[in-house]
């Protein structure tokens, strides 16, 4: 029997992408609103109360409003906004963290989809903090290079419009005040005692993301060969994952000295790699900011909530 699903905010970049990817699935009946009713609280409340699962693709304030509108309903909530990612009572939607985390998503009534930058950082940091290889009080720095689609419709229009600003032709760092909205989950989920320094950079390509954490050997609790040891730790943690793949040194060598941020554009997987040497190490994740960093992550969580294989309908080729 098909479940009833309502996407509140399907006109945005993430919502529209999720809606299109679910089109034609026989196990889902989509509930939709006409354009003149999509911001009407009463109409939204009616759909939320009719739905079995609701996906929120809204700004934070509107997402909180939707949760309030859904009170008293049977609807399970999957929120793609920042609003509930570190809030008690919400399962964090990164099932690869642990078997317990996967179970929490599978049975959860309220699930928060991770942020795109945060997903790349947490995928690298969380297993190593858990193992004690990276102590919880390590002051970490994170650089993240992303395509412009992560900025939503307005930024996409700016980059693809005629007569655009020449500044858009160069990479641009943002989050300059160290108050980026992903920072709370980047600290909370791995269990860090110090908020990382985070330097996100947007560049002139549509989609793709590359997140890097530089480390000195002196910051780590490991043996004489950090690259090998960290790679092995990550491989053991993600063993069997259909979505997160840990590359070996032979894979890194085949890149001929470059790591392209858009290599997984259009895909829902994530690749992790350990670069550098035994004194200065760089942890890197790359994925599609619209895939594992957005709609792919939401669909993975949705599959688990529906009792399906987590990779169902994902592009992992």
List the main descriptive attributes of the protein structure presented here.
globular, 32% helix, alpha/beta, 7-stranded mixed beta sheet, 6-stranded parallel beta sheet, 13 strands, single chain
Offer a concise description of the structure.
Helix content is 32%, strand content 21%.
Q: Structural class of the secondary elements? A: alpha/beta
Which quaternary structure do these chains form? single chain
Enumerate how many helices there are, as a single number: 10
Distance between the termini: 29 Å
Mean pLDDT: 96
The beta-strand count equals 13
Q: What's the arrangement of strands in the largest beta sheet?
A: 8-9-7-10-13-12-11
Strand content is 15-25%
Order of helices and strands: EHEHEHEEHEHEHEHEEHEHEEH
Relative helix content: 25-40%
Low-confidence stretches: none
Radius of gyration, in Å, reads 20 Å
> Largest sheet, if any?
7 strands, mixed
What shape does the CA trace take? globular
């Amino acid at each position: 029997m098909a479940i009833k699903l309502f996407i509140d905010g399907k006109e945005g970049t993430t919502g529209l992408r999720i809606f299109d990817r679910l089109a034609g699935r026989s196990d889902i009946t989509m509930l939709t609103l006409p354009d003149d009713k999509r911001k009407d609280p009463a109409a939204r409340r009616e759909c939320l109360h009719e739905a079995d699962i609701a996906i929120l693709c809204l700004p934070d304030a509107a997402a909180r409003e939707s949760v309030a509108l859904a009170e008293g309903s049977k609807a399970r909530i999957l929120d793609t906004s920042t609003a509930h990612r570190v809030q008690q009572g919400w399962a964090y939607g990164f099932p690869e963290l642990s078997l317990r985390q996967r179970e929490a998503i599978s049975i959860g009534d309220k699930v928060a989809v991770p942020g795109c930058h945060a997903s790349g950082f947490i995928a690298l940091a969380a297993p190593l903090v858990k193992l004690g290889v990276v102590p919880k009080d390590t002051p970490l720095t994170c650089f993240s290079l992303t395509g412009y689609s992560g900025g939503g419709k307005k930024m996409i229009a700016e980059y693809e419009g005629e007569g655009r600003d020449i500044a858009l032709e160069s990479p641009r760092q943002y989050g300059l005040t160290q108050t980026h909205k992903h920072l709370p989950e980047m600290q909370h989920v791995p269990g860090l005692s110090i908020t990382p320094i985070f330097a996100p950079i947007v560049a002139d390509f549509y989609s793709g993301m590359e997140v890097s954490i530089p480390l000195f050997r002196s910051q780590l609790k490991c043996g004489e060969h950090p690259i090998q040891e960290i790679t092995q730790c990550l491989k053991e943690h993600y063993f069997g994952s259909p979505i997160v793949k840990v590359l070996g040194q032979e894979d890194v060598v085949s890149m001929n000295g470059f790591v392209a941020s858009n290599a997984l554009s259009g895909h829902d997987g994530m690749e992790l790699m350990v670069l550098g040497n035994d004194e200065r190490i760089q942890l890197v994740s790359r994925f599609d900011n619209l895939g594992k960093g957005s709609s792919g992550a939401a669909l993975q969580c949705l599959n688990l909530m529906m009792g399906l294989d987590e990779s169902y309908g994902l592009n992992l080729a």
